[in-house]
Amino acid sequence: MRQEALLGFGALLGVANGKCDPATIQAALPKGASVNFAYPLAANATFEVPKSSTGYPTNAVNLPALCAVSVQVQSISNSTFGFGLFLPDDWNQRFLATGNGGFGGGINYVDMGAGARYGFATISTDTGHNSSTGDGSWAYQHPELVENWGHLAMHGSVVVAKAVTAAYYAQNVSYSYYSGCSTGGRQGLKEAEFYPEDFDGIVAGAPAWWTSHMQPWTARVALYNLPTTANYHIPAALFATINTEVIRQCDPQDGLVDSIISDPEGCNFRPETLLCGANANATANDTSCVTGPQLDTLYNIFSDYLAENNTLIFPTYWLGSEGQPALLTGANLPNPLGTDYIKYFLGKGPQWNYNDYNDDIVKLSDSINPGKATVGFDLSAFHNRGGKILSYHGMVDPLIPTSSTPYYYNHVQRHLAPKSIDIDSFFKFFLVPGMGHCSSTPAKMNAPWYFAGPNQQSALDQRVYSVPGFEDEDHDVILAMMAWVEKGRVPKYVVGTKYVNDTLHTDVLRQRPLCMYPEQAKYKGNGDVNGAGSWECESLY
Ligand SMILES: *[C@@H]1O[C@H](CO)[C@@H](O)[C@H](O)[C@H]1NC(C)=O
Ligand SMILES: *[C@@H]1O[C@H](CO)[C@@H](O)[C@H](O)[C@H]1NC(C)=O
Ligand SMILES: *[C@@H]1O[C@H](CO)[C@@H](O)[C@H](O)[C@H]1NC(C)=O
Ligand SMILES: *[C@@H]1O[C@H](CO)[C@@H](O)[C@H](O)[C@H]1NC(C)=O
Ligand SMILES: *[C@@H]1O[C@H](CO)[C@@H](O)[C@H](O)[C@H]1NC(C)=O
Ligand SMILES: *[C@@H]1O[C@H](CO)[C@@H](O)[C@H](O)[C@H]1NC(C)=O
Ligand SMILES: *[C@@H]1O[C@H](CO)[C@@H](O)[C@H](O)[C@H]1NC(C)=O
Ligand SMILES: *[C@@H]1O[C@H](CO)[C@@H](O)[C@H](O)[C@H]1NC(C)=O
């Protein structure tokens, strides 16, 4: 029963009718599913993550009163996946699924806690294996586990958890939502593509949607800068120098000099200004200037990865991303998100050496498409059932190039236009200037990055609810999604917040609208540059 006309989002409606014990939960489960545990937690209690669960080991603290449940579900080829479910005493009658990260396998109880604070019955799936986010070895010669990770575990967890939720509260969920970033963003878009009935609204941040090309690119891009002894190698400290020069040249393009690059595509960056002069120490170890060979490396890193026939394999970073320690090109070895994928998802085996990388890897990856993880462009079924998607991407993301999201969006548009589907009617996305991967901002930018997106709460303090001081649909992406789905209020922007001290999250340093693509935020020319009201969203097209 939909009661949205009667209620504000804060209204707490549901009452826990069912008992919070294993027998009651088991009775609600379909064949092939069994309870791992079910027990009540009082208000302010801590959920202790089972020691054997290694993917997301952080305990969830100061929870609202809830029933903590975990269920194991049979999947293909004798495999299983598990999920955790928090059923809050003060239920908002709605369902929320949270996403995972990288190759990680495990239930993220901290993110479930963030959802439970809104009153959602909130789940997290373990995706069918136990591992940290950077470990892909579980996938070796186990296509069934890859299939669980790719799509089966999320969908199966959602279906079973909705049944448990309905039985526990003796009422079906009124609305169903998804919130995930990175691999979590990919999982959200994959749901929209494969299982359009699962969600009414999907928040998909920094989606790792092009698994079959992005993972090979992840290995490839690092090789431009390896080995570290090469004369073309750019050490991490020199990337910081390059970043300072990128900001000097590219920040003013957006009309305001504030260390935040809002329009990197509008910048014709010339790294030649950094060339070492005759009197400089012209070695690869100098951190104040770049040599000719290092300039080549820089051009390689900032070029899209193209096939021999000139088709795009994967788009590259946007300018401004180069200053961050997590940059894929800043390490001594390629990131395992690239090499573990090639060894274990593509079956090259543990002995495979990254120096043997070549473009045939991409062809192999396309032919296997492990776990059907890569998301396609046909979202028409999700559109047709009235679903909504809000996506976003940090503009200095050092892991997943920002440009991959506009690429996806533009290709979905290209795919749906012949079907007379207006993408803007159900799928919107916004860029977040100065935000890194899913959360946070470099200290020298201090950009407004917080909007209560997936994984963001724990970057402040996992105990926070919504956007402290601004718990409304203008500032909170989950509340914005609910307003769109339930009340038809179409989001034009989400206001990002930067606190003076994010951990304390009391005083606000600056706020700014994060505009829906292809609009960009423009300073009006007067008023406090740190106030959201001094900015407007402007279309360049
Ligand atoms: C909640 O628990 C914390 C310790 O985790 C404690 O410091 C705090 O006083 C408790 N608050 C309430 C309202 O019980
Ligand atoms: C199914 O999996 C269980 C647990 O991993 C294992 O003990 C059992 O041998 C497997 N059965 C088959 C038929 O592979
Ligand atoms: C992961 O570990 C947990 C805790 O030991 C266990 O219950 C679960 O079965 C494991 N999952 C898989 C897929 O092996
Ligand atoms: C929930 O929805 C299903 C399918 O529409 C329906 O069969 C069932 O009776 C509903 N359950 C409750 C408790 O309303
Ligand atoms: C060159 O190296 C010397 C010794 O390491 C250092 O003192 C000097 O500042 C360097 N010059 C430049 C231009 O970086
Ligand atoms: C840079 O320094 C490292 C460590 O001191 C050294 O091994 C390497 O050869 C140097 N590179 C160049 C190009 O001088
Ligand atoms: C170009 O090469 C890529 C990568 O090998 C391949 O996937 C694609 O089909 C090719 N396109 C054309 C038009 O031949
Ligand atoms: C922010 O506040 C926390 C908690 O009081 C404190 O530990 C930390 O040092 C502060 N950070 C900065 C940059 O001042």
Short structural description:
The chain is 26% helix and 18% strand. It is an alpha/beta fold and 541 residues long.
* Rg, nearest Å: 23 Å
Mean pLDDT: 94
Which ions, cofactors or small ligands are bound in this entry?
2-acetamido-2-deoxy-beta-D-glucopyranose
Let me know the number of strands: 17
Class per helix and strand makeup: alpha/beta
* DSSP helix fraction: 25-40%
Family: Belongs to the tannase family.
GO molecular function: feruloyl esterase activity; metal ion binding
EC number: 3.1.1.-
Protein name: Carboxylic ester hydrolase
Record the SSE blueprint.
Blueprint: H1 22-27, E1 33-41, E2 45-47, E3 60-63, E4 66-74, E5 80-88, E6 94-98, H2 109-116, E7 121-125, H3 143-169, E8 175-181, H4 183-194, E9 201-205, H5 211-223, H6 236-250, H7 292-301, E10 305-306, E11 312-314, H8 336-345, H9 360-368, H10 380-384, E12 388-394, H11 404-416, E13 427-432, H12 457-460, H13 477-487, E14 493-499, E15 508-515, E16 519-523, E17 535-539
